[in-house]
Amino acid sequence: MKSILIASTLVFSLLSLNAFAHGEEGQDTSTEQQGGHAAASGRPGVAANVSKTMQIDMSDTMRFAPENISVKRGDTVKFIVTNSGKVKHEMVLGSIEELKEHAALMVKFPEMEHADANQVSLDPGKAGELIWQFDKAGIFDFACLQPGHFEAGMRGKIIVK
After folding, report:
1. N or C: which end of the chain has fewer CB within 10 A?
2. Does the pTM of the predicted model rise above 0.85?
3. For residues 65 and 81, what is the distance between their CA atoms, to the nearest angstrom?
4. How far apart are CA 70 and CA 21, in angstroms?
5. What SS3 state is found at 51?
């Protein structure tokens, strides 16, 4: 009985990890491939269609600057994201529920790597970009999901009018 319980736990853990697995380099990371991850806010953007560029800084104070962003519905935004800290940070777009679930998973699997269109993960002192088209109005979320960062308040809002 004990071995069945252990096997069941292992299978459940692997299935959970697979549900939140991230695309590998060269794979399709379209919204459909992501299983709806961040789909509520829009979809991956195309560089040629960028209508707004925003600078985002991530720091070891566990904050984004700015924390609140306003864009227009239909905007394709290029986020130029900089990690000015001394530890790894990331910017992940998603619903607050998705981000909470994923943050909890990151605590269990801290070595999990990201490669989705709705995120950028950066080592200290590095910069990167994230291009996203916001095709729905509403208030959407972003966060750093490195273990402990979300819980420390490293998150923000995107208001789409």
Report:
1. N
2. no
3. 10
4. 30
5. coil
